[in-house]
Automatic annotation (TrEMBL):
It holds the Pfam family ABC2_membrane. PROSITE patterns: ABC_TM2 (PS51012). Its main location: membrane. Belongs to the ABC-2 integral membrane protein family. This is Transport permease protein. It is found in: Cell inner membrane; Cell membrane. The chain crosses the membrane at residues 32-54, 69-90, 111-138, 144-174, 181-200, 234-255. It comes from Massilia mucilaginosa. InterPro entries: ABC2_TM (IPR013525), ABC2_TM_bact-type (IPR047817), ABC_2_transport (IPR000412). Residues 34-258 form the ABC transmembrane type-2 domain.
C-alpha cells in the first residue's frame, strides 16, 4: 500500500517531525519581548475586535438569532476555521520549494514535510480556537454536547486541506505559476464562502452556486454547531467527503510518482 509504506517511514522519523514543529513554534517568538505570549495576544485581539465591533455593527443581521454576540460568533466560527484551511493549503503548496536545501542534503521521507505543515497549523489553531471556546463559555453561548460534532468536521477539513495542498505543492515545484494562481483564487474563494455574510444575504441564483464550493458546507457546519447549537446537515458534507478522498489519493500518487524528479527540479 502506498500510504502504509510512506507512513511507516514517517513513524521512524517521528522525532524529526516533532522536533521541526517545536523549532518552528519557538522560532516565531525567539527575539520578541513577550515571547510565546503573542500566541495568546494575537488571537485574543482578533476575537475582541470581532466581538466588540461586529456585534454592534452587524448584530441584527442573522435571522432567527437574537443574541448580541450572534454575529461575532458566526464570524469567528467561519474566519478562524477558514484560517486553518488557508494556512495548510498555502504553506503546503510551497513546502517543497522552501525546504529545497533540506531535501537535497538529507535523506528522510519527504512526506514528513506536509505532515509538519499540518501539525504546525493545528498547534496555532488549537490555541486560537481554545480561546474562542473560552469566550463561548464566558459569554454563556457554549453549545453543550453538540460541540463534540466539531471534531469530525475538523478532521474532514484538515484532510481536504492537506490533500489539496499536496497536489498544489507537487505541481508548484514544476510549474511555479500554480502558487501565484492559487493565491489569487484563495481570495475569491474566501469571499464566495459565507463567512462575513450569511448565505441568505445572497441572491437566490448565486446562493445555488454554493453547492460547487466545498468549503461552504464545512464553514456552514461550524456555524450551525456554534451559533445555533445543533447538528450540521451531514448530507451536505458528502460532496466534500468524496472530494477529500480524491484529493488525498491524487496527492499521494502524484507525490510518489514525482518525488524523485522534484529533487532535480529544485
Amino acid at each position: 500500500m502506498i500510504s502504509l509504506s510512506m507512513f511507516r517511514g514517517v513513524w521512524r522519523y517521528r522525532g524529526f517531525v516533532l522536533g521541526s514543529v517545536k523549532r518552528e513554534f519557538q522560532s516565531k517568538y525567539r527575539n520578541s519581548l513577550f515571547g510565546a505570549l503573542w500566541t495568546v495576544l494575537n488571537p485574543l485581539a482578533m476575537i475582541t475586535v470581532y466581538t466588540v465591533i461586529f456585534s454592534e455593527v452587524m448584530g441584527s443581521r442573522l435571522q432567527g438569532v437574537n443574541s448580541t454576540f450572534a454575529y461575532s460568533i458566526y464570524l469567528c466560527a467561519g474566519a478562524l476555521t477558514w484560517g486553518l484551511f488557508a494556512e495548510i493549503t498555502t504553506r503546503a503548496q510551497t513546502v517543497f520549494i522552501e525546504n529545497a536545501n533540506l531535501i537535497k542534503k538529507l535523506q528522510f521521507p519527504r512526506i514528513c514535510l506536509p505532515i509538519i505543515v499540518v501539525l504546525n497549523a493545528c498547534v496555532n489553531f488549537a490555541i486560537i480556537f481554545g480561546l474562542f471556546t473560552a469566550f463561548l463559555v464566558w459569554s454563556g453561548h457554549f453549545p453543550g454536547a453538540v460541540y463534540l460534532l466539531l471534531f469530525p468536521v475538523l478532521a474532514l477539513q484538515i484532510l481536504f486541506s492537506i490533500g489539496l495542498g499536496m497536489v498544489l505543492g507537487v505541481l508548484n515545484v514544476f510549474f511555479r505559476d500554480v502558487g501565484q494562481f492559487f493565491g489569487i483564487l484563495l481570495q475569491f474563494w474566501f469571499w464566495f464562502t459565507p463567512i462575513v455574510y450569511p448565505a441568505t444575504a445572497l441572491p437566490k441564483p448565486v446562493r445555488e452556486l454554493l453547492v460547487f464550493n466545498p468549503m461552504a458546507a464545512v464553514i456552514a457546519s461550524y456555524q450551525t454547531i456554534l451559533v445555533h447549537g445543533r447538528a450540521p446537515d451531514w448530507a451536505s458534507m458528502l460532496p466534500i467527503a468524496i472530494l477529500t478522498v480524491l484529493c488525498c489519493v491524487m496527492g499521494l500518487l502524484l507525490f510518489r510518482k514525482r518525488s524523485g524528479e522534484m529533487v532535480d527540479e529544485l
